Amino acid sequence: MTVHGMLLETAARRPDAAAITHGERHATFAGVAGEAGRIARFLRERGVRRGDRVAVLVENSPEYVAAFFGVLQAGACCVALNHANKEETHRALLRDCGAVALWTRAREARALPEIVEDCPDLRFAVVDRANPGWRLPAGLGLHRADESAALAPLDGAGEAGPDDLAAILYTSGSTGTPRGVTLTHGNLVANTEQILAYLKLGPDDSICCVLPFHYSFGNSLLLTHVRCGGRTVIDNRFAFPQQVLETLARERCTGFSGVPSHYAILCARTDFLERPHPDLRYITQAGGAMAPDLVRRIRGALPDRIAVYIMYGQTEASARLSWVPPERLHEKFGSIGRGIPGVSLTVRRPDGSECDAGEQGEIVAAGPNIMRGYWNAPQETAEVLFPDGLHTGDLAYRDADGFIFIVDRVKNMIKAGANRVSSKEVEETLLQRPEVVEACVIGVPDALLGEAIEAWIVPADAASFDEQALLRHCASKLASFKIPRRLHAVEALPKNSSGKVLKAELRAAVR
User: Fold this and answer.
1) Which pTM was predicted?
2) Which of 29, 206, 330, 493 would bridge 231 by S-S if both were Cys, CB 3.0 to 4.6 A apart?
3) What is the pLDDT of residues 22-50, one digit of tens each?
């Protein structure tokens, strides 16, 4: 099975079922498969071959879905670009992956000449409409996306197989430097099946998707619902979270997924916890650790019939690595759970031996969903992929039941004098207070300590925010060397398009 093969199989089984909803637009599985097949033929006729990289620069939409599956059916590898990035980042990633084509829209590529400048491997770009002012480099072809409309869909699943690259997902990780995670068809299909095994999704399920498809979590939402024959409801307006809740209700979605900041905002800025949600069957959270107090608040407020899934994963693992069974959540607050079906998840010492219960070590993951490596980065690949699996960079311990609890990212541990402090522990302490919506803790350069602890706070009410009261709370919960030296009250934390807090930006700003 290939990734696009999942779409073709579902389209043959449920051709008239709704696959994608975006506002007032609806697309069936047969419609998406047909458009993807036409795009595949269009690309093949213009010289795209098995193993070529084709970049897709399109916001979540039916157009993105068709282009993604079309690229794969053509035998190529899809490089999904983040439309929120600047032209120079797009250009750097196009050069790094050696993309031969760029599929985009004018709204996402307003400065197309700057994006494609000095990209020697790029042969042509496809856009919905051209800007008369564009002056593209000599030799770069420009096509309109609707040229594919008159073509017959490409027959069959094409040449790509399970071992071929399906996607390169660029992630900045902890360093701020983009790294291309290479995922095969086999990786993505395996993780899709693994997720379906514990979420038990079916054709009657529909997900309200606010996560971008260029992000592994968002990509997995799309793939799982394509595979099970369910519906993906796109809403790109999380800047207006109450409108997202209206979409959730109007479309009678059975699922919602987000990273911790999504849930923090929903709880603080909307009536999410007060609504009855008659159609909602489950919610899932991944993309970073969610404060246990917020998990308790959500679990306590939502009806028992709505399952709450706390999950953990990495882009390098296609998406998911672990889950907490909802029926165990009440006794395992703060845990990322155990490995999902088909994944071995262990906590290991630096010498590779497995840690005892309660002993801290690094999480190591093994399974068919683990990436092939980082694109064009053999040294970085060698630093995380070992014979025993993917070394995740997360410091954790397991309890007597085998449930794993993350202490922090190894790179986020703060070296304050002779002490090592978990930024996650300090953040969770701050988030115990109702006046704190979001918190981010980092180590800042200090001549005496090496690093000093400072926190950035998004208060529920900036006018009444009391820094000293919050510091007294920290003093009552934390050892003295863990108390932040300073609290910064801000309107918002810097985040990427998937909602993850960018600690690298905060570090750069204070250096």
Assistant:
1) 0.88
2) 206
3) 999 999 999 999 999 999 999 999 999 99
